[in-house]
Amino acid sequence: MPSPVQTPQAFPTRIFSGIQPSGGLTLGNYLGALQRFVEKQDEGIETIYCLVDMHAITTWQDPAKLRHATREAAAGFIAAGIDPARSILFNQSQVTAHVELGWIFNCVARMGWMSRMTQFKDKAGKNSENVSLGLYAYPALMAADIMAYKATHVPVGEDQKQHLELCRDIAIKFNNDYGVNFFPIVEPVIEGAATRVMSLRDGTNKMSKSDPSDQSRINLTDDADTIAKKIRKAKSDADALPDTLDGLKDRPEARNLVNIFAALANLSPTQVITQYAGAQFGTFKPALADLAVEKLSPITSEMTRLMKDPAEIDRILGAGAARADAIARPIVDQVYDIIGMIRSRQV
Ligand code: AMP
Ligand code: TRP
C-alpha cells in the first residue's frame, strides 16, 4: 500500500518528477514511475512532471529522434492518465530556471559527492575520460529540477535513490552555507511492487531503454502481439512457482515476473504467489501476457492517436512550461538575492 505523503518540514507538499526522453518509455518507467505519477495526481496533490530533455543530451542524441521521443513520452504520460489540466507537464529546456539553478548547484555540490554516484560509474564504465562533463554534473541538474519548485516529494524507481540523497545533501549545504531555511529536504517516494523492473533476458540487470536487445524490455509502443511474445519468451527457469516469496530468493527472473504481475494487477507479490503457488511457467506466463496486454494496449493505442497531432502535444507542453515557469522563476530570483547576485535588470 502506498504510504500517505507526509511533509515533515514547513513546506507545502508538492510532487516533482522527471523522465529522460532518450528513447521510448518502457514497462520499467511505467511501473516504477508513471503509475505513481498518476496516483499522486489523482490523490489531489500538486504534481509537476517534466520531460528532462537537458538530461537526455548528457549522451549525444540525434536531434530529430530527441524531438520525436519527447513528444512520444508526453503522449505516453497523457495516455497513462496524466491530465495536463491537473498536473503540470512540460519539457525541461523551456523553463530556464532549471539550468540556472543547476549551475548554482554545481558550485554547491562537492567533487567527492559526485564521484560516488553509482549511475555515473555504471554509465561511464572504463570510458570515464571520454564521457561528457554534463553526465558527471547530471545529478546536480536533477537536484535543481526538484528545488526550482521547492518540491517535497519525488516519485521514482529504486535506481534514483542515491540521486535523491544527493539532492538532500545539496539542499542542506545550500541552507547552511547561506544561513537560510530556503530549500526543503526532499523525500523519495519509492513505492509499489515493481520499483526495479529487471530485463526480460537477465534478471540481474535493470530493464532499460538503452539495452541493445529489444527483447529485454517491453516498450509502451509495442503492440499486443509483441508484448505477449516477449513475455512468453522471457527468461525463466524450469521450476514451478513456490508458495512463498522466500522460495524466489535465488530465482531473479521468476521474482521479476511475479513483481511485474503484481504491479500490473495492483496486488502485492505475496498475493500473486499465493494465487499461483505450484503453477508452471507454461501457465503463469500466458496469464501474465494477457494481463500485460489488457493493461498496456489501451495506453499504446491512445499514444498512437495522440501522436497524430504533434502540434497539440507541443501546445500542451508549452502551456505546462508557462505554468512551471510561473512557479520556478520567483524561486530562482530569490536564490539570486540570497547568494549575492545583483538583479540589475529589475532595479
Ligand atoms: P529514466 O528512463 O532513466 O529517465 O527513468 C525515469 C524514471 O523511471 C525514474 O524514476 C526511474 O527510476 C524509473 N525507471 C526506469 N527504469 C526502471 C526500471 N527498470 N524499474 C523501475 N523503475 C524504472
Ligand atoms: N535522473 C532521472 C532518471 O534518469 C530523471 C530525472 C531528472 C529526474 N530530473 C529529475 C527524476 C528530477 C526525478 C526528479 O531516471
Structural class: mainly alpha
Could you name the CATH homologous superfamily of the largest domain? HUPs
Tally the helices: what do you get?
A: 13
Any idea what the CATH architecture of the largest domain is? 3-Layer(aba) Sandwich
Strand order of the largest sheet: 1-2-3
Which residue ranges are poorly predicted, with pLDDT under 50 across at least 5 consecutive positions?
none
Average pLDDT works out at 95
Radius of gyration: 21 Å
By CATH reckoning, the class of the largest domain would read Alpha Beta
Write down the secondary-structure element order.
Answer: EHEHHEHHHHEHEHHHHH
The biggest beta sheet is recorded as:
3 strands, parallel
Tally of separate domains: 2
Amount of helix: 40-55%
Which helices and strands appear, and what pairs or packs with what?
Elements: E1 15-19, H1 27-42, E2 47-51, H2 53-56, H3 63-80, E3 88-91, H4 97-106, H5 111-115, H6 118-124, H7 133-147, E4 153-155, H8 161-178, E5 187-189, H9 224-232, H10 252-265, H11 269-276, H12 281-307, H13 310-339
Parallel strand pairs: 1-2, 2-3, 4-5
Helix pairs in contact: 3-12, 4-7, 4-13, 7-8, 9-12, 10-11, 10-12
This protein binds adenosine monophosphate and tryptophan.
Summarize it.
The chain is built from 13 helices and five strands. With 347 residues, it is mainly alpha-helical. A three-stranded parallel sheet has the order 1-2-3.
